[in-house]
Design brief:
Distance between the termini: 42 Å
Largest sheet: 9 strands, mixed
Helix content: 25-40%
Structural class: alpha/beta
Strand content: 15-25%
Number of strands: 13
Radius of gyration: 19 Å
């Protein structure tokens, strides 16, 4: 069994691999085996990997399985104590991996962890996708230490302390293999978006800890697969977020939260249309709501299993306030200004 397997899921990412894979190998190969799992790329990714990076272990798929199932299928072929899921557009730094390994070795109750994510375009600013560890509000809206909605903070060391979080970013996620498979891995039905939040929430329900360790830091391009304003991304985010709530919310909260989300989602759709004149995203929200209604009961067995496995009755990293109220009404744009 390997100690650490760094697994990069690639789809037509030759440019990113050429730019950032050398750093991963330089700063990680002494402590980890590096894999690239290719989701049926049609660019020159495979030729590049075989010719310029022969030390990388290749897993090649004959179709694009998406982020979630792509990782599941790749990880089933790897025997390691820790998996480190790493985006192809991550620039790692010297000594980035050692603190994560030491943390996991020292604390058997930690199932997963992440480094601090900074923007590769503005290196003093957090990166949107995970910043310094993620949380949820009571209605399922994700936010991070360093990023709330579109407000991304500068990194002035304000979150340079280890913290328990609800979710760790899928851009650079170290997870204990035994924990990953204990909850069934990423939900392949999601395809992409919200899948790492769903995974981490299921782990937290079982009483396992998720941690951000800013002693380790990496830089992220972000938006490497889909741009921020993209109807498919909007569709996946809304559909998968609702599905995650249906699976993971305790019985006493589910009906209340879903009623509010019905109103808030349609309010968001009309805001996209009227204020932003974005017809594509407006339609995507309606399609996401319909898709959730159609497949919701496909997750009934998942919900029962998750609720039966519940160890944590109340998870402190799922905050009890409304993030929309705090951000838009109270004007609290930074994590440090939110209620405890």
């Amino acid at each position: 069994m390997e100690k650490v397997a760094i697994v990069i899921l690639n789809w037509n990412g030759a440019k990113m691999l050429r730019q950032y894979l050398p750093g991963v190998l330089r700063y990680s190969c002494d402590e980890a085996t590096v894999y690239v799992a290719d989701n049926a790329s049609t660019d020159d990714s495979l030729d590049l990997l075989r010719s310029e990076f022969p030390e990388v272990k290749l897993i090649v798929f004959d179709k694009n399985w998406g982020f979630a199932d792509g990782y599941n299928k790749a990880l089933r072929q790897i025997d390691a104590e820790y998996y480190l899921l790493l985006n192809s557009d991550i620039e790692v730094t010297h000594h980035w991996l050692t603190p994560l390994i030491e943390l996991m070795d020292a604390h058997q109750d930690i199932a997963a962890c992440q480094p601090k994510l900074l923007s590769i375009f503005d290196r003093d600013r957090f990166e949107y996708a995970g910043a310094s560890g993620g949380y949820l509000d009571r209605y399922g809206y994700p936010f991070c230490r360093g990023r709330i909605f579109e407000t991304v903070e500068r990194d002035n060391g304000q979150y340079d302390y280890q913290a328990d979080v609800l979710w760790a970013t899928g851009a650079a996620l170290m997870v204990r293999a035994v924990d990953y498979w204990a909850v069934g891995g990423l939900d392949g039905r999601f395809f992409a978006h919200n899948e790492e939040i769903d995974l981490c929430w299921r782990l937290r329900i079982r009483g396992r800890r998720i941690v951000c360790l800013p002693e380790s830091q990496v830089y992220h391009v972000g938006g490497g697969t889909l741009p921020k304003s993209n109807p498919m991304k909007t569709f996946l985010n809304f559909r998968n977020n609702l599905t995650m709530l249906y699976k993971c919310l305790p019985d006493g909260e589910l009906q209340h939260v879903m009623r509010w989300r019905w109103a808030l989602d349609y309010l968001a759709a009309w805001e996209m249309l009227i204020l932003k004149r974005n017809w594509g995203d407006f339609c995507a929200v309606y399609r996401a709501r319909r898709a959730f209604r159609r497949w919701r009961h496909d997750f009934d067995a998942d919900r029962r299993q998750i609720q039966d496995s519940r160890v944590e009755k109340e998870i402190p990293e799922q905050r009890r306030f409304s993030l929309l109220w705090q951000y838009y009404v109270k004007g609290r744009k930074y994590f440090s200004t939110l209620p405890e």
